[in-house]
Design a protein that fits this description.
By secondary structure, this protein is mainly β. The chain folds into 3 domains: about 210 residues, no CATH class; about 80 residues, no CATH class; about 190 residues, no CATH class. It is about 10% helix and about 30% strand. The chain has 8 helices and 36 strands. The strands form 10 sheets. Strands 3-4-6-12-8-10-9 form a 7-stranded antiparallel β-sheet, with no helix packed on it. Strands 15, 16, 24, 25, 26, 34 and 36 form a 7-stranded mixed β-sheet that branches.
């Protein structure tokens, strides 16, 4: 849904249509030209106090076209620039004023695609702040370096972006007289000196918006995912499980007409692969195939190992630079992104939800992630493990454990809050979900009350499939079979109706990229989900519970996700971490203008 703003808004028409005319002759290459438009400056005044005055001004519109004669090898890049200016004049009484404003880039039409196999950026966005410093972080966008030689340029890749981008979030302007802040915007079309004919006649249209208030237009969350974000399988890492896809392993879809997010938050780049680094994490201590290495007491381990205790010296390195040691995995991953070995923010499925989820920064306790859309309802899982504030210390609470999370995004010594799946005494534990105190007390009483009425009203009552199945039918098969045995034809036709549950095994297994959908959940030779955990956005590094029981034993075993990343089982009286899972009502709305990243998650309309 595109923006229709009725507040104090100034729209800078980024105008028009970018028509790319590529010539397929000889050794010609794609090239772009930009021409300034003829629109004059516009002033919009926003009187925000009795005599304080906040006004906005923009430069000329930008018209960008492609000329056939410019398609020459070795020619330089072309760019168009404009600005957005905010001016605050303080009142005469106090000579002191402070206001805030927002700047958005609303890309209303863009059907460009990547013309090269390694997805080199062809349209780059550069933003310079009022201090003359280039902005290097915009939530939801990835910085890339594109072109070569004199054409090499770095900016935010918007080659295929068609969305509202928040450039400035609640930016403060203060004045003791008159203060002006000016933002410079530049759109760059990169001459790659390669065949860019795939973008012949493609168009790009955008509007620059500057205003005092945040955008408040909203859209249905489920529809936004299914109708806007999903265009074809793989775009925005969304896959429509209708059973008729044409991509590799499409025959492994669940065939339930769900839309699921699949893949890893980080992905290796062509630069990494060219150096033999084909994985994010080293698969084994003896191998050198991963961008990130982990060391414990000076010895190389594989990321996800639990042989290293908190009191032992441990650190991370990048495979291409073993000299620099990082205390946390997050630091190492961030550096690898900066150095061009990894891309980040690939799975944009974050939602800010729960008490305190206002317009400001979203606290980690309020971060949730979208598993997918099922029958018109969005299914959420908490991003981080739930704590005792949410779940309580009664019911099936077990203990608090402090240990490194080697494959998660937490700090080195994070608290894990451990809960039994169901444990009353040695002789009365059972793996029946309806009898679980974790279910009845910690999730559907304590956590439910923690949400408060406003957020409870967004959560749907759900019929959970809890019949389970045999170990061989879920853990030792690939995901399509596991899904069928867990959801379609469980060992027992048992359901449980309530708001809050846990993830299914198949939820976790489908969260890996499609190339992993033929992988077995657990194998004794290690060739299972442990090897591909780096391509699974749901893997967080600690052992955690699922809702599904093992039906073929008398030891009250329950399926879980192991700290290594595999599908495992454990008795109900083991202490595991957990993340609440629930479905939203089908009418839940979100505000437009958010990227769906951890730093800029989708915001739910309350």
């Amino acid at each position: 849904m595109k923006v229709k703003n009725d507040k104090k808004v100034l729209v800078l028409s980024f105008l028009g249509v970018i028509t790319l005319i590529l010539v397929v002759v000889g050794a010609t290459y794609a090239y772009f030209t930009a021409q300034g438009g003829g629109t004059g400056n516009i002033n919009v005044n926003a009187n925000t106090a009795t005599t304080d005055n906040l006004s906005f001004q923009t430069g000329n519109a930008i018209n960008i076209t492609a000329n056939e004669e410019d398609f020459g090898q070795g020619a330089g890049n072309k760019s168009g620039t404009t600005f957005a200016r905010a001016t605050l004049t303080a009142n005469n009484a106090t000579n002191n004023a402070t206001r805030n404003y927002y700047v958005y880039l609303d890309i209303t039409d863009n059907n460009f695609e990547y013309a090269t196999d390694d997805n080199q950026a062809e349209i780059l966005l550069k933003v310079t702040d009022p201090d003359g410093v280039e902005v290097t972080s915009i939530p939801g966008l990835t910085r890339k370096t594109s072109g070569s030689g004199a054409n090499e340029v770095t900016g935010f890749d918007i080659t295929t972006t068609e969305d509202l981008i928040k450039i400035v979030d609640n930016y403060e302007i203060t004045s003791t007289g008159t203060t002006t802040q000016k933002w410079q915007i530049e759109i760059i079309f990169v001459n790659l000196n390669s065949d860019q004919n795939a973008n012949t006649n493609k168009t790009f249209n955008a509007n620059l918006i500057i205003q005092e208030d945040p955008l408040t237009t909203s859209v249905n969350l489920a529809s936004y995912i299914t109708d806007t974000l999903y265009t074809e399988d793989g775009v925005n890492n969304l896959y429509y499980h209708d059973g008729i896809g044409s991509y590799t392993n499409a025959d492994q879809e669940a065939e339930d007409n769900s839309y699921r997010y699949s893949g890893g938050d980080y992905q290796v780049t062509e630069k990494a692969i060219s150096e033999g680094l084909t994985r994010i994490y080293t698969a084994d201590a003896s191998e050198s195939d991963g961008v990130i290495n982990f060391y414990c007491n000076g010895e190389k381990q594989y990321v996800g190992t639990i042989v290293c205790f908190t009191e032992q010296e441990h650190y991370y390195t990048t495979a291409y630079n073993e000299t620099t040691h990082y205390n946390t995995l997050e630091e190492a991953l961030t550096q690898a992104v900066i150095d061009g070995y990894l891309t980040s923010d690939n799975i944009k499925n974050f939602v800010c939800f729960g008490p305190g989820a206002g317009e400001g920064p979203c606290d980690i306790d309020n971060l949730y992630r979208i598993i997918g859309v099922f029958n018109g309802q969005v299914k959420l899982i908490k991003d981080d493990y739930a704590n005792t504030t949410m779940l309580g210390t009664d019911g099936d609470y077990y203990d608090t454990n402090t240990s490194p999370i080697y494959s998660g995004m937490e700090n080195n010594n994070s608290n894990h809050y451990l809960y039994y799946w169901n444990y009353i005494s040695e002789n009365s534990s059972t793996n029946v979900w309806s009898a679980s105190r974790l279910n009845a007390v910690n999730l559907n009483t304590n956590y439910w009350n923690y949400l408060t009425a406003d957020w409870q009203g967004k959560v749907a009552n759900t019929e959970w499939q809890v019949g389970g199945n045999a170990y061989a039918n879920i853990a030792q098969v690939s995901v399509k079979t596991a899904y069928a045995n867990e959801i379609i034809s469980p060992a027992e036709a048992t359901t449980y109706e309530d708001e809050i549950g846990l993830m299914y095994v198949s939820d976790y297994m489908y969260a890996v990229g499609p190339s992993g959908w033929t992988t077995i959940g657990y194998r004794t030779d290690f060739s299972d989900y442990r090897v591909i955990k780096g391509d699974n956005w749901m893997y967080s590094g600690a052992s955690e519970w699922t809702i599904s029981r093992r039906s073929d034993n008398v030891d009250n075993l329950v399926f879980g996700v192991g700290c290594y990343g595999d599908v495992d089982i454990n008795p109900t009286n083991m202490g595991y971490s957990l993340r609440p899972v629930f479905y939203l009502n089908s009418d839940v709305q979100i505000y437009e203008g958010h990227a769906g990243t951890a730093s800029d998650p989708y915001r739910i309309v309350i």
